Amino acid sequence: MSMHKxxxxxxxxxxAVGSSGAFAQGPNLGKPIGPAEIAAWDISILPDGTxxxxxxxxxxxxxxxxxxxxxxxxxxxxxxGTNAALVGGGPITGMESVKTVANFWPYATTVFxxxxxxxxxxxxxxxxxxxxxxxxxxxxxxxxxxxxxxPMNAQTLPKVRxxxxxxxxxxxxDKL
Amino acid sequence: MQSKRSKSGWxxxxxxxxxxxxxxxxxxxxxxxxxxxxxxxxxVGSAAAEPLADDPWSKVPGGISPPYEQRSRxxxxxxxxxxxxxxxxxxxxxxxxxxxxNGTFTPNGLHFTIVHxxxxxxxxxxxxxxxxxxxxxxxxxxxxxxxxxxxxxxxxFVECGGNSAPFFSKEPIQASxxxxxxxxxxxxxxxxxLSTLLxxxxxxxxxxxxxxxxxxxxxxxxxxPMTKALDDAMVALYQxxxxxxxxxxxxxxxxxxxxxxxxNVKFLRRIQLTDAPAMSYYEARTYAPVLPNGKAYxxxxxxxxxxxxxxxxxxxxxxxxxxxxxSGVAYSGNGRISKxxxxxxxGQSWAxxxxxxxxxxxxxxxxxxxxxxxxxxAVLQSHAWDEAGNVQPTRAQIVAVRGETTKxxxxxxxxxQHYNGITTWAIERNxxxxxxxx
Lengths: 176, 438
Hints:
The complex is a heterodimer.
Chain A: H1 3-16, H2 20-25, E1 31-32, H3 35-38, E2 56-57, H4 59-69, H5 71-74, H6 109-118, H7 129-142, E3 152-153, E4 168-170
Antiparallel strand pairs in A: 2-3
Chain B: E1 3-5, E2 11-13, E3 15-17, E4 21-22, H1 31-43, E5 81-82, E6 92-95, E7 113-115, E8 128-133, E9 139-142, H2 143-146, E10 152-159, H3 177-181, E11 184-193, H4 194-201, E12 209-214, E13 221-225, H5 226-231, E14 234-239, E15 242-243, E16 253-255, E17 268-274, H6 281-286, E18 296-298, E19 306-311, E20 322-331, E21 337-343, E22 351-352, E23 354-355, E24 365-373, E25 378-386, H7 395-402, E26 424-427, E27 433-436
Parallel strand pairs in B: 8-17
Antiparallel strand pairs in B: 1-2, 3-4, 5-6, 6-7, 8-9, 10-11, 11-14, 12-13, 12-17, 14-15, 14-16, 19-20, 20-24, 21-22, 21-25, 23-24, 25-26, 26-27
């Protein structure tokens, strides 16, 4: 880093902490924490792929994870069991249409985010990132939203175009 | 008060709308005239009372005061109804018995709860709240630390986006107000404004949303616009004066007054400022009600102006003609309730109700109006307005836009969400109360 850049960096840093005058007025009892300490909780994925971790997985790998950890609730070939089907879904025509990944979910990143944070039901957040990518690929491939051998990773997943991406109306735009 | 002498000589309040709705001011002003009016009904046709006894419990010293008071054993029937009492691997709903309580705030043991994978048993000393993302410095707070911040208290209702979903059924489902409207409750919440904490983390100007996440098994997460964070969002620590109940988010929850219940993330452990919404499962899929053209609403957020009559309501059978108070709750995510009208003739004529003071913003307001039932069929409705000028719609108006089911769904089902239309109770000659559409 040149002296010039270092100076700019220092000025920016001073600006960022510049409201430290304001910090001092409050109780100031929060402890500063860095990215490494946050990592285990930092699990939200945005539709543009922000937050996606390293790793990769294919549908074939996902099928094997599915058989071990998902089959008992979501059924054979993800056709539904005691819990929701993860494949299929007719056209959405009204409130009685069953919402599925293929016919409703606007972003493929939500599949990764939700599996990683909430599944398997009895042991959430025990899957490796590779396993989550693989399960995501498995579900997307079963629904023919990606090809059978397309690997899912931080680069490919945000590019998957979901059929119902434009199927939504923001109810109160003035509240956003 | 406008009133007249009855045949018995007692003052009677004026009938102001069809089927015996009386002037709302009749009993508010109190005093001899009002008391007389009420006593008039009490005396007419009443048999003389039994002699009074000095009962056994009055003649011995009573029980020991417990450290934490329990309600009378005679009140055990006043309880929430459970959708998943065995804790099967799916969502659990516990609904508030609005017909068995009164006033404007919901007792903590009866506040509705929904948990998507059970209620976590959180050690408050180990719980942490992280604020990070597009902030100037990420900070982590202990519960002890948060207790040293300036706090605010406010009344606020919390309502599930799916409350009142049975009203989307093509036929009225016969069920109690608890089954139909039990996923809304109201409490006084005390905690630290989110904006107070964000002053310490600093806000990157690129931040337009924040993601709130819970410490429960599914790490439930929702995206919220930053405007709400800087308006009235609260990290709530207390519910009606005591620590938040486990099912309501112990030891801390996000409170977004007037907004969809699911966004009021319980067991709050993480707030991440972002430039875009996460499109989490619950916002991308679940709380996106589908319209008849196949499109779906996204980011509904607001719980719009609404009211329903709790007394009388199904299960509270009228015991013969005479005086009854019609009362219920009204609320709006847009602010204060400005007016509630009640009809006893299916909407042909309306009487203005008395609003119980104070009338807080984004909280329950109880409305009351006196009524003399003449034993003929009657059709009760309530209709609310808020200070922002929003009017509670009729069911027909909602169905015209949102549709209805083609089959009658189970009463616990959620065919759609965000029903804030009018509720209609039909009073039959035998005093039974039925749910009808009108």
